[in-house]
Design brief:
Layout (H helix, E strand, L loop, with lengths): L7 H17 L19 H12 L9 E5 L5 H9 L4 E6 L2 H10 L1 H5 L3 E5 L6 H9 L5 E6 L8 H14 E12 L4 H9 L1 H4 L15 H10 L2 E5 L7 E8 L15
Parallel strand pairs: 1-2, 1-4, 2-3, 4-5
Antiparallel strand pairs: 5-7, 6-7
Length: about 260
């Protein structure tokens, strides 16, 4: 990217508006299947396998209310809407450009009142505020985020986890993937990215923010979740479902920072 991104959302706006069109314009035969930004990361066969292994066993009964963080162009949004016929999905993304793509792709679902979109602003409590605005506190069945939180540092990720804990009903579930530095493929990428990102310190980039299963389970269990991992999917990433414990009180919202 030659353009400068002033915030994280704008970084992904530039990706959608500049980089993805360049990928589609190549003469590589693989580019023929790139219909939406994000299609370059994986294949329909892989995405269907992930849904079958991770989502399908957890969504019985199907959710009525779901929140997706970082839907991008909506590959998993579309799957959840198609396979859970009574669900309403609130899709939240930092990128206005990605939301525009999502809204065009799933316009019928928006018109039917099944999909709602909002841009996530860089404010620590904005997720909470959007949930309260809809009156969904403590009543959401599913929070999910796939292939987005690999780029989110733990300090920021915890804000989403805490908001999810307050949004979910007892027994509600959060399905997510994060980057795992302890997996063989994750460690290989960690090493390979050293020369790519060392000179970008302090700049907005798409570098991965590395975690591992013990860190994920330690933090989530402390804030009211039971965590289960999917070792059969362990490649570069750590895949997990976190279930909101019925007996635990909803974690309090952190105190506002002093001004």
């Amino acid at each position: 990217m030659t353009e400068r991104a002033d915030d994280y959302g704008q970084y992904w706006d530039l990706y959608v508006q500049s980089i993805f069109p360049q990928l589609r314009a190549t003469h590589d035969p693989a580019a023929e299947r790139l219909h939406w930004p994000g299609d370059e990361w994986g294949t329909p066969e892989i995405w269907d396998k992930i849904y079958a292994m991770v989502f399908a066993p957890e969504l019985d009964p199907p959710p009525a209310r779901a929140i997706e963080i970082g839907p991008g162009s909506g590959k998993y949004t579309a799957m959840v809407l198609e396979r859970c016929p009574d669900v309403q999905v609130l899709a939240l993304d930092v990128s206005a450009a990605y939301l525009s793509v999502l809204e065009a792709r799933l316009a019928p679902e928006i018109a039917a009142g099944r999909l709602f979109t909002r841009r996530l602003l860089p404010e620590w409590d904005y997720f909470d505020r959007l949930v309260r605005e809809r009156g969904w506190e403590g009543s959401v069945d599913l929070v999910f985020s796939i292939d987005a939180m690999v780029h989110v540092d733990l300090q920021y990720l915890v804000a989403y986890w805490l908001a999810a804990a307050r949004a979910l009903r007892p027994g509600g579930k959060m399905i997510m993937s994060v980057a795992d530095a302890t997996s063989p493929h994750g460690f290989d990428k960690l090493m390979a990215d050293v020369p790519n990102y060392f000179s970008t310190q302090g700049k907005i980039t798409s570098k991965f923010e590395w975690l591992c299963p013990p860190m994920v389970s330690h933090v989530l269990e402390r804030i009211g979740f039971d965590v289960r991992f999917f070792p059969k999917l362990a490649g570069r990433d750590c895949w997990f479902v976190a279930t909101r414990r019925p007996a635990d009180p909803i974690p309090a919202s952190p105190a506002a920072p002093a001004r």
